[in-house]
Amino acid sequence: MLTEYPCLAILRLPFVLFLSALCVMTGLVPVLLPALSCPAHAAQSTSVSGPHGTATLLSDSDSFMPGQDMHFGLRLQLAPGWHTYWLNPGDAGEAVTLAVHASGGAVGEGGPIEWPVPQRLRDGPLMSYAYTGDVVLPVRLQPQEAKEGTDMVVEATADWLVCATVCVPEHAQFTMTLPRAPLYPSPQAPLFARAAAQRPVASPFAAAIAPDGTLSLSGEGLSPAMVRDAWFMPEQPGQIDHDAPQVLHVRDGLLQLGLKVTDGFHRDAALPGIVVIRDVSGREQALAVTAHPGGPSLMVGTAHGGRVVWLARLLALAFAGGMILNLMPCVFPVLAMKILSLERMAQGERRAALVGAALYAAGIVVAFVVLGALIVGLRMAGDSVGWGFQFQSVTFVMLMCWLLFAISLNLLGVFSFGTGIAALGGAGRLSGHMGDVLTGVLAVVVATPCTAPFMGAAIAGALSASPVAGIAIFVAMGLGLAAPYLLLAAVPGLVRRLPRPGAWMEIVRQALAFPMLATCVWLAWVATLQGGQVAVPLLAGGMVLVAFAAWLVRQAQDMVMAGRGGRDGMVLFCRGGALLAVALAVGGVTMVPPALAPQGGGSGAAHPADGVEAFSQARLDALRAQGRPVFIDMTAAWCISCLVNERVALSPQRVRDAFARQGVVYMKGDWTGRDAAISAFLHDHGRDGVPLYVYYPAHGDGVVLPQVLTPGLVLHTIGAQ
């Protein structure tokens, strides 16, 4: 098919017949005949037809002039039931590509496709952005003169995917030749005008995107009386869940859409796309927007049930994560304090049990809120911190090691804290109550190296939500951690099922010192990784001071018990307490020399194990460009969950053999110390702490794995099972 219309169109026919007769009568036929004849060049290529439709290359002009813009377009006339895809195909599909090249009398390269607004096609749980029927996809080209008086040859290559119940890739090459002459609209020009009318217009409204995925348009003309519906289609794939409901909220001057963001959502980057607004009459207007970071979130308590559901879901995840945190290895060191609380419950002091459990829960909740507020504050100040960030400080690790060592000595009976951590030798009610609160605080502090299932999403949501919603999420997490002990205190039947008090409690109390001491060994190892060899004498010297202070306190307590307390006992007690305070303060004023501190995230990153590459974003990008599968393991020496996963699920020989067979590159990012690249990677995947496991197949987007791994799960993910 050379052209869509006959060269002498019906509208031209009377005019041409009149001039022809005039020419015959006046003898001017040789002069005017070339002007009246059909162009020697077609404004469209030969069509490529198949069972799924017809493809043609069109031009909006019958000729070309150097330096003047013109359009070429791929026209797809798709068979009924078939569709092809937009720039962002959505959950499935592949975008159309069109490359146009001019040579001969003029040279030039076509620009990007000027995309018309696509349709939203839903297929089960998938959403696609596509075109059906007859569509023209134009590109702009400005030819530059190469040879005067020579025709321009235009060549184009197109690839597109057509889908119905099956998908078929299509490919075609086109050629057309145009003469040099003043531009004149071709018969196909109306098709280009229709395509231009179908493009989105520049938005008159300011657009912003909040960290939680709330897209906002603000400006005059937006009101509930005018907007009936709206939806957003991002230009970039992997940013949002395309099939998820987009909760709409409109008030005068503001339109907000609640988008469900994915792990690929970049909270610090602009989000371009199309917002389609349908007014009360049913007319649709498509606006091209570029939403910049920092917009407002949808307010909790508005008429939007979807936003309330979102917050309720995060609260449930936070509560569940807090409960599961009781079973994580990180919390084992505080089991001693918990069991001592259970001992008091078993003795029948119901009121004391209730008060103690409530204060313990209050300590947990306060610690969670303070820790969350501290993380948010540091992030607002530009610091890339996340869950467990305090363990990246060698000073904090040393302080924790000394504190847990002191608690171990207390459990072994070297000296007594009384009924609570703060009751140094006293048994008063105030000291016991303060001890319950501090036990809850300590439980949170030592729990931060672990991230239980569900906690990752909850923490990310808390840090991206409004301050009120974020605090509520951290409170829910704390209540989850305290829930088992609140339940025991509140239900008398459960308390009565506890074993009767006896000598076994003292044995258990002393036995629980050994998990504490094991934790001290682990913290000493972490401090050595962070601070180098200089940390060893500092840490050991502090432990000696702690032990000496504990011994002095015990001497003072023995003198008081023997009736010889008086001045001497109190002096020894005060000296012991002072030495204990000095020992615990050494870490606060001790700075590890920078030359001895490992760089780039600790020794794990600097000296990866055999078969394991140190994480690098540039290396990851290069491997993905080569089409190689990559398994990312973001870990830290202070993250017990990470170490357990590595030992149980990633170190077995059958897993390593499967990695080798599948050609999977194993990359490890060590977050033991500060590492901006790892922090950015965590941030890009919606996480604020480790562990994080991401598998990139040879071709495709990354898959985020759960925070608790099994060998079977890893093998299934990489396709080895």
Strand and helix layout:
Layout: H1 13-26, H2 29-36, E1 48-50, E2 53-59, E3 70-78, E4 83-90, E5 97-104, E6 106-109, E7 119-123, E8 126-132, E9 134-141, E10 144-145, E11 152-163, E12 167-178, H3 189-197, E13 201-202, E14 206-209, E15 214-218, E16 227-234, E17 247-251, E18 254-258, E19 271-279, E20 284-293, H4 305-325, H5 335-346, H6 350-380, H7 394-411, H8 429-447, H9 455-464, H10 467-490, H11 492-496, H12 503-511, H13 513-531, H14 535-561, H15 566-589, H16 603-606, E21 612-614, H17 617-625, E22 630-635, H18 640-650, H19 653-662, E23 665-670, H20 676-684, E24 692-696, E25 703-704, H21 711-717
Parallel strand pairs: 13-20, 14-20, 21-23, 22-23
Antiparallel strand pairs: 1-2, 2-3, 3-9, 4-8, 5-6, 5-11, 6-10, 7-8, 11-12, 14-15, 15-18, 16-19, 17-18, 19-20, 22-24, 24-25
Structure description:
The protein is α+β, with helices and mostly antiparallel strands and 721 residues long. The chain folds into 4 domains: 48-196, Immunoglobulin-like (Sandwich), CATH 2.60.40; 202-298, Immunoglobulin-like, CATH 2.60.40; 308-589, no CATH class; 603-717, Glutaredoxin, CATH 3.40.30.10. The protein has 21 helices and 25 strands. Strands 13, 14, 15, 16, 17, 18, 19 and 20 form an 8-stranded mixed beta sheet that branches. The chain has a 5-stranded antiparallel beta sheet with strand order 10-6-5-11-12, with no helix packed on it. A hairpin with a 1-residue loop joins β5 (97-104) and β6 (106-109). α5 (335-346) runs antiparallel to α6, α6 packs antiparallel against α10 and α14 runs antiparallel to α15 (566-589). The longest helix has 31 residues, at 350-380. The protein is elongated. The two termini are 53 Å apart. Residues 1-41, 299-305, 418-431 and 587-608 have low confidence and may be disordered.
